[in-house]
Design a protein that fits this description.
By secondary structure, the chain is α/β, with parallel strands linked by helices. The chain contains 16 helices and 13 strands. Helix 5 packs across helix 14. The site of uracil has 8 residues, from helix 9.
């Protein structure tokens, strides 16, 4: 077999067989074909696409390139959750303890942030002592004792995806439906759960910019799940405006603490409750309505909050010692009116420039910096009222005006877009 023939075949829009895709992926991870050759192959897929069978072949080869987690020693229903990444998205930290407190196990392997999207691992690292690298035994013990565990993605899971995803990032070939579907599903299937709930973000602050593409991605992932007899449920949720009021690692942990104290942003509450109920209903095989009632109960009774603290403590974190040392700058509104839009992309770029994000996986980040939105979508604001607060250790040029310009303030209140667009099973 020759790489050049396989690339030409894809460039001519012909279907590849399993052996051809396996040859390309395995040769690349063994260093037998160069980054340039693999880039040609990726671009051929990017432009000509993959059929569902080819997407499955790619997923399967990537799964087999690394280890597969065995969760058979856990005697509870298990459900995994994945988010395709969004601005201010801290819901893993909320949903995991809620679902665990309902007696459903949540084994989560999460990633670090890269580019403008934040990573759950970075948020948890802003808690002093939190251990992200548990051994396999510690991970399983935590799942058996607490019911949830969040650790960093094992280097050994879907090894090929790691290398190919890094290359895709470098050459600007991330936003391809078969490439994203196989990348996400290879990691999720290798992580061992039989039920996977995916929060698929749609909008300016997400990979998927419109509902049509997001639906296609969801359907592709559901079909791949079927090859492995895994139940995949995808919820499309709006990511045009940030999720919740805080953006930035430690600030997002603080918002989670507020959430469990009953002080929550409406959209964050709606999505968290919805995803939790979906996870519980599919794992326990009960109706969504029943599961939702249970979630609300677990929140109101404090059970979910207790689970949150127990989980953080179990993994070594000291919630009273957050890495939150930063200066504070309050930004004042120059207008009176209603907040009809908040630009997620502008804000995530600002938070990135303040030091919360990384370009390379090895870059150091500032856990404390970020933004608190003192006003939310639909709120009324008066001139000279505080609209947002910047937490910083290094200044960014024009940071005040960037924050201000991210808010669209108008005289008339517009109808808010719903956070949950649809769910596909
Ligand atoms: N997240 C992934 O894990 N892979 C992609 O390709 C895109 C988002």
């Amino acid at each position: 077999m020759r790489a050049i023939d396989i690339i030409k075949k894809k460039q001519n829009k012909e279907k590849l067989n399993y052996n051809e895709i396996e040859y390309m992926v395995n040769s690349y991870i063994k260093g037998k074909i160069s980054d340039d050759t693999m880039s040609e192959f990726i671009f051929a897929i990017y432009h000509k696409g993959l059929s569902i069978d080819e997407t499955y072949y790619l997923t399967d080869v990537m799964i087999k390139s690394g280890e597969v987690i065995d969760l058979s020693s856990i005697n509870k229903p298990i459900v995994d959750k994945h988010s395709t990444g969004g601005v201010g998205d801290k819901i893993t930290l909320i949903v995991s303890p809620i679902v665990a407190s309902a007696g459903v196990c949540v084994p989560k392997m999460s990633g670090r942030g890269l580019g403008l999207t934040g990573g759950t691992v970075d948020k948890l690292e802003s808690i002093t002592g939190y251990k992200l690298n548990l051994s396999r035994k510690e991970f399983l013990d935590s799942l058996n004792n607490i019911g949830c565990a969040v650790i960093s993605q094992s280097e050994r899971i879907a090894l090929a995806d790691k290398k190919i995803y890094a290359l895709r990032n470098q050459i600007g070939a991330v936003d391809s439906i078969p490439l994203i579907a196989s990348s996400i599903m290879s990691k999720k299937i290798a992580s061992g759960s039989n039920i996977i709930v995916i929060d698929l973000k749609v909008g300016k602050g997400a990979f998927m910019k419109n509902v049509k593409d997001a639906t296609k991605l969801a359907e592709t992932m559901i079909k791949i799940g079927k090859y492995y007899k895994k139940k995949v449920i995808c919820t499309l949720s709006d990511m045009n405006i940030p999720l919740g009021k805080n953006i930035g690692n430690v600030l997002e942990v603080k918002e989670v603490i507020d959430f469990f104290d009953g002080k929550y942003d409406k959209r964050l509450y709606e999505l968290s409750v919805y995803i939790s109920a979906l996870m519980i209903s599919s794992a326990k095989k009960i109706s969504y309505k029943k599961a939702r009632e249970l979630v609300v109960n677990l929140l109101d009774s404090g059970h979910a909050k207790n689970k949150f603290y127990a989980w953080i403590k179990y993994q070594g974190g000291n919630i009273n010692k957050l890495k939150d040392k930063a200066k504070k700058l309050s930004v004042i509104s120059n207008k009176t009116g209603y907040i009809n839009n908040i630009d997620a992309v502008k804000l995530s770029q600002l938070v990135f420039d303040l030091g919360a994000g990384r370009v390379l996986k090895t870059d150091k980040i500032d856990y404390a910096c970020g933004i608190v939105l003192n006003k939310q979508l639909g709120d009324k604001i008066k001139e000279n009222e505080v609209i947002g607060t910047i937490y910083y250790n290094k200044k960014v040029d024009n940071m005040e005006s960037i924050l201000l310009e991210s808010f669209k303030i108008e005289k008339k209140k517009r109808k808010n877009k719903k956070i949950i667009i649809k769910t596909i099973k």
